[in-house]
Amino acid sequence: MGSETPLTLPFIDFTNLDQITKNEAWNLTKSQVHRALEEFGCFEASFADIPPELQTSVYDSLQELFDLPLQTKLKNRSTKPFHGYVGQYPMVPLYESMGIDDAPIPEKAESFTKILWPQGNPKFSKTVQELSIKLSKLDQIVRRMVLESLGLEKYMDEHMGSTNYLLRVMKYKGPETDDSKLGLNSHTDKNIVTILHQNQVDGLEVQTKSGDWIKVQPSPNSFVVMIGDSLYAWTNGRLHSPYHRVMMTGDKARYSIGLFSIPKAGYMVKAPPEVVDEEHPLIFKPFDHVEFLQFYYTEEGQRAQSALKTYCGV
Ligand SMILES: O=C(O)CCC(=O)C(=O)O
Ligand SMILES: [Fe+2]
């Protein structure tokens, strides 16, 4: 934990990549992505800007959403753990979140909206769906680069087709104190890739491999890209999946948005033989992500230092 530990995330510019081609810019960016994900499991990305109007309408919409009465928010239910409304937890009283499965698909964004606003709210569903599409493009570019940089191109179609998207929207109340209060516990994400965007209130912290916490201060037009345990497992540990948490101070509410690419139920996450050798013995047995999530939310799963290792470590 020397003084050389960089306390900012790597920053990667994606604005020059308007198409997926193997030009120089693509290869350069790809090697930056690979290095950042090996070392930090995370980076800040500038991507095709979210126009200011979309940003304003996203965060206006989120405020409107979380201002709904609790009994209305509770209608956001899901059979999968952590896909519906989450909140009112004594451990993290500042935190609330909701989830929209397959948010890039217009009918899915619309049906979520109808549940919460039976009279309709076209502005909300359009905003959420447009944003999800933009974020899913970045997810796909990053994953394409990851597979290419590990020489796993032949799995591209299978890998890309093996996931669904979940858009989660989060609100963290300001604790109205100067000392920081826990907004969200330290955890690793369990999915493939997570892409985060926030309003102008900071709070996300990402842990380095040596245990230091990086306070993430993304610019309004940038995104945080992070690896989850499923991609850590699929790449047999070649990429890091970092612990992160949210710490809040002051009186402003923080709103954030996360697009999660998640292995489909029934798909077995299994490291390809190309990433397993004597130097890199297999870390995890093949697993079904949805079944793993069910374990993660049991008492044993919550107690485990690494739920995935406990669940299917070799
Ligand atoms: O709000 C954030 O920036 C992070 C949220 C997060 O880590 C999560 O939902 O898994
Ligand atoms: Fe997370």
UniProtKB/TrEMBL annotation:
What InterPro entries does the entry give? DIOX_N, IPNS-like_FE2OG_OXY, IPNS-like_sf, Iron_ascorbate_oxido_reductase, Oxoglu/Fe-dep_dioxygenase_dom
**Function noted in UniProt:** Probable 2-oxoglutarate-dependent dioxygenase that may be involved in glucosinolates biosynthesis. May play a role in the production of aliphatic glucosinolates.
Q: Where is the Fe2OG dioxygenase domain?
A: 162-263
Q: Which GO terms describe its molecular function?
A: metal ion binding; oxidoreductase activity, acting on paired donors, with incorporation or reduction of molecular oxygen
* Superkingdom, natural source: Eukaryota
Organism expressing this protein natively: Mikania micrantha (bitter vine)
Q: Which UniProt keywords apply?
A: Iron, Metal-binding, Oxidoreductase
Write the protein's name. Answer: Fe2OG dioxygenase domain-containing protein
Xref: Pfam families: 2OG-FeII_Oxy (PF03171), DIOX_N (PF14226)
Question: Which family does the record assign?
Answer: Belongs to the iron/ascorbate-dependent oxidoreductase family.
